Queue: 3 jobs
Job 1
Amino acid sequence: MALVLGVAIGAGMVVGLQLPLLGRAAQVRATINTDESPIRPSSPLDWPGVGSAALIIPSLGVRESWHNQVVPIASLTKMMTAYVALQKLPLAIGETGPCVDVTTTDVATYEELSGEGESVAYVTEGENLCEIDLLNGLLVHSASNYAVMLADMVAGSTEDFVALMNETASALGLNGTHYADVSGFSPQSVSTAVDQGELAVALMKSPLVRAIVDQPSVTLPEAGTVNSFTPYVGTDNVIGVKSGRTAQAGGCDVMAMTFEQGSTTQTLYAVVLGQEGGDLLGPAGDAALALANSALATTFPRYPTSLRVVVRGSVGWGASRATFKVYERFAIRWADRRRTVPVTLTMDRLTGPIRREQIVGWLEIHSPTPRRIALVARSGASPPTLWQRIT
């Protein structure tokens, strides 16, 4: 946790200050440590029996995970495909974006990917597809051939687009994520449950994306009406986001579900990876729904509830030093539990002997409920004599 001591210092860092006195200046040495009480749910969450999972509730500052390994993510990869495309070609609701005509190469790609067992949307040569069509087919029907066409539209090639995907993952702090393709069919496209939850939060900030992924089906120019592969969309307050399955990844689902928090509607994100059984998507959807429902049945504190501050140090001259110590625990409130809480340490200008129980400085906690805590000497100390200063 970052601390502030005139300028920023790290938690637990030993610092030296010079207190201006006549002759030799007194020195202060202090060690400051802080730690937050973690958010703890009131009852256990319903984590899946296999694979890995994460729960993210932005409005509550909740970010919980279970077995958060780096694993293949199948078509969850297409969330980043859509995110990068919209970063490069922003699109609002009601707009179509740039359009392209389907080529013989695009038809060949459709046939190739279909033959390999990837999810695709039917295309015909000369068909006109716009960015909005490609996003609809990509996010609702998980069309891998649409992912390739979108990548070509944005970057000119899938290779250059994949490079943009990895650059974006790094910029978003998704350190467990790496992409090898635009569709996720490659087992080298990998991530963690937490990373995929964080990406979903970022992606769903787009009103267009929220409108797209909330559709149980979508009508495409030549493919016609195709259904969503995302389990439970349109039921149980589920509004998306994306699912995927391959033999290597198992069943994967990133489920966004709305809930009421006071007078506002908020969204939680339940992520499950590596689910087994059946068609893979069914078990993944069931596991995500169970996790989401268990979260809604659980009481989470609205804010982190406490912060512990420990300060130990000494002030004085050479061997004549007074020790001080502060240990205090108190309530604080802020919206994001990962936000740093600035702490400022200031020392009084001491011009004479330090007495036991004398206030020698102050510790200020700059949270939304600020606190100012006195630093009290536990022993006395005397400044050097004139003879000591000149020898």
Job 2
Amino acid sequence: MNIAIFGGSFDPPHIGHEEIIKQAIVKLDIEVLFVVPTFLNPFKDQFFAPAKKRLEWVEKLLLSYPKAKLITYEVDEQRSVPSIETIKYIKQNYDLNEIYLIIGADNVKSLPKWNSYKELKKLVHFVVATRDGLNIPSHLQKLQIDVNISSTDLRAAIKREFLPSILADEIINYYTRKPMSNTIETTINLLDEKKAENIQVFDMRDKDYIVDDVILATTLNSKHGMSLADYIKKELKKSGEKILEIEQSDEWTVIDLGDMLIHLMSPEYRAKYNLEEFLSKRVDKEEY
């Protein structure tokens, strides 16, 4: 089987990504196009939309392209995964002949810096998606993509005309929300990924309380609670959030972000102190 692999952050997906998908399916001699959202680009130190949200967007985008298949491997790993590792994972799971690896024109110069580049170029046939008139060496195969837009540009100024129609409303709503709304969703996704239970969000704005929002989550045990706190701290810092203070114990950890408090509690302490009843007297809760 001949396949192509198209990886990216998709933060957010845009019409340039969609055009690459269309062109790859039509122009390359392949049976399947594997689209692989990254958990974190190896050359970046943060993402903006959480991995779970980006997966949902790409999955929805691919509904219109039966020859395209979503690969969740890198997001499932919850770490920065080099392309060589993803290639080997796919080779282990599929009987392959030719592998085309689609890269952006802006990545050509940095290719020799990629992890295990010498091994990688023996495994794949590179295909370059053109962009912004960037020069591409003649020996490399090209996909002519006449869309000059980047996810970075879109995050700075969201424009509907550069978004896939099937995703436009969702993406606009997501990136134009208040920053704290994004932080809440990111935190919920992080807690869910790490198996926290009974996640609840309380909107305390316009209430007589010390913060705007409170998140409660139950930990499995003290070790899980400590691990959750470290993970939340690390990942929120990647997305630019400033953590003011962390009060931590085996049974109960409080993470203070100024406008939001995150409570990570053991089942016993959650039942004993019943914070949700205290907060619910002031506002209706949301459950996740």
Job 3
Amino acid sequence: MASNIKNKIISVPNYLKTWIKTFRGGLTIFCLIIISIIPIFLQNPYHLGIFITAMIFTIFAASWDFLAGFAGLVSFGQAMFLGISAYFTAYFLRNLAAPWWLSILIGAFASVCFGLFIGIPCLRLKGPYLALGTMVFSLIIFDLLMMGGLALILFGTEGISRVPSIFPVNETYQIKIYYLTLIITVICLEIIIFIGKSNLGTILKSIRDDSTSSEASGINITKYKIIAFMISSFFAGIAGGIFAVHLRAVNPAIFGPLYSFYAIIMASLGGLATISGSALGAFFFIFLGEALRPFGDYSVLIFSIVLILLIRFAEHGILKPILERLKDLWDLLLGR
């Protein structure tokens, strides 16, 4: 087993060299370069904040995409993992003065523990009942946080505010947060993609496609579903930790169903089981919302119409058709 792991590690550089030479690999590198140089030309904190939010939701949407796209487990309560980590991160930063990286990791592992706690009873449910069961747990936490009698323990409706900044607050503060978020986002996406292509990812996809046959072949489907839940909750927790670091405050609203549906919409927009589609879906979702702000009360209506049209004409996500069109254009430019 050790030799197999060693061979996989050795083959990674060769795989990367081959991948970079492909159209998809080259396009990914190009997009990373563009995102990396944005703060050079765009230093307005508000505009940088939009990009930071999009990257945070990229990790969040990818965590849901891994659970639903690879394991076939649809959750309507993904926001609870985002919120639990955000609360733990904010608490450790403000009350215990812990390092930011340790606070985020503690928050992520707290989400994993909660994912294990939620996963065991919820995975006994199937189909829509699993989705509703996860949403119920999220709503229970939301109601507990909103209870005035528990305000001394759970911080009440105001949540945790005045979270200390992790960098000196000056004109470069937002730029530092931007690059920190970008690095963490790239690392998280690479790890999720690697897991998806590993033996674990193959097992999860077999369970997703035919759980009966997988169980008959000797696979402990409950065990692997719980593992998928824990992995998904970990990366949702990473997103929650960065969320708390970026906004420097958290409140119970983060546990609401709206945030869970954000992840579902973003992942579905990009395309399920693609992971990289979550990035495209998150950026499209956040940028479209910002572009429609001038329309005021009509923005939600326009936003809904756009989403309905996209779902109607790109029911498997927008990543694949966009890549196909760009590939055709690239071949045309090269005269192929």
